[in-house]
């Protein structure tokens, strides 16, 4: 079930903030009000796959070891106890200890994990719950591990593709900082007695440099403040919606992000459905996992339409969640009775499209950055040495 953050006031007048799981927001609100509490705010909590210093690769290793122990014939509780002893990450170790104690008290594994959303996402706990109900926990976890491997591979490709352009930008900023703070001021001192005779380009460069150095503390403070402000605004529902909407509108980035999100949506949906979770609940789980407010909202709209009896393909088409080709493929999957496989095929297609888009973007970005760097450096060098060239011409 999805996680919710809420702020409420108890009967004694004390306000507090907490979180809880429920089928939906109205249900949770009724439960809280039944206790006599006044609910001030209630928002669905979206969590990433992993946070808090426990990266996806470590979590995948945990799942692989967990599956191995269960396949070897060990019950769930002894398996978790072994993993608890071997875990070095303090926060995850504490979470496992709490889960072990809950299981000893009669709580189901999936219910115990829902209390630790920092490590166990709604997707994972829903998958585990489906495995518990079907009695095929090992098979379900194997499918989740496959899902993890593919998502990690895509993220690795994204990071590798963006590493070199980021390096070029950092190098350009470092070189410009060196010129503006050290090189150009020295040339300015040398030209101080020719202030009225300097060429326009040199005068412009000196003026820009003096302005930057004079207001540098204010510029740095403004950039830092804007960064913190943007980070705080991004955490709000309105800020997240605006920024996520911009990501889907920026010309060069739009195609990459859209394809990546479509791969994540279809692969997540396929994994959850294969685990035995009904389609409506699978859509709800997928909406809680996708880290884009706009796309998550459209998935929620799809879920509502499916609840009303609309087919998944038609719901995708009505909400404009996916292009026509994807809708047709999903329609074929529903007609053939093998929707999960078709969704995985769609995800594989988008994974390949992401890789192709990354290759194209990096091929375009690198020469553009190099050209910009060359033009900026050429302007600075020409502006600095132009007075010397003119003096040499006059001596002839």
Evaluate the radius of gyration. 28 Å
Mean pLDDT: 81
Indicate the structural class: mainly alpha
CATH architecture of the largest domain: Up-down Bundle
| N to C succession of SSEs | EEHEHHHHHHHHHHHHHH
Q: CATH superfamily of the largest domain, called what?
A: Type II secretion system (T2SS), domain F
Q: Which CATH class of the largest domain applies here?
A: Mainly Alpha
The span between the termini is 85 Å
Strand order of the largest sheet: 2-1-3
Instruction: Determine the CATH topology of the largest domain.
Output: Receptor-associated Protein
**Based on DSSP secondary structure assignment, what is the total number of beta strands?**
3
Note the overall shape: elongated
Instruction: Characterize the biggest β-sheet.
Output: 3 strands, antiparallel
Determine the strand fraction and express it as a percent band.
5-15%
Give the helix level as a range of percent. over 70%
Total count of helical runs of at least 4 residues? 15
Number of domains: 3
Low-confidence stretches: 47-53
How is this structure best described in words?
This protein is mostly helical and 396 residues long. It has three domains: 3-45; 56-120, Type II secretion system (T2SS), domain F (Receptor-associated Protein, Up-down Bundle), CATH 1.20.81; 145-396, Type II secretion system (T2SS), domain F (Receptor-associated Protein, Up-down Bundle), CATH 1.20.81.30. The chain is 75% helix and 6% strand. Strands 2-1-3 form a three-stranded antiparallel beta sheet, covered by helices on one side. Helix 2 (56-71) packs antiparallel against helix 7 (137-190), helix 3 (76-86) packs antiparallel against helix 4 and helix 11 (279-289) packs antiparallel against helix 12 (293-307). The termini are far apart. Mean pLDDT is 81; it is low at 47-53.
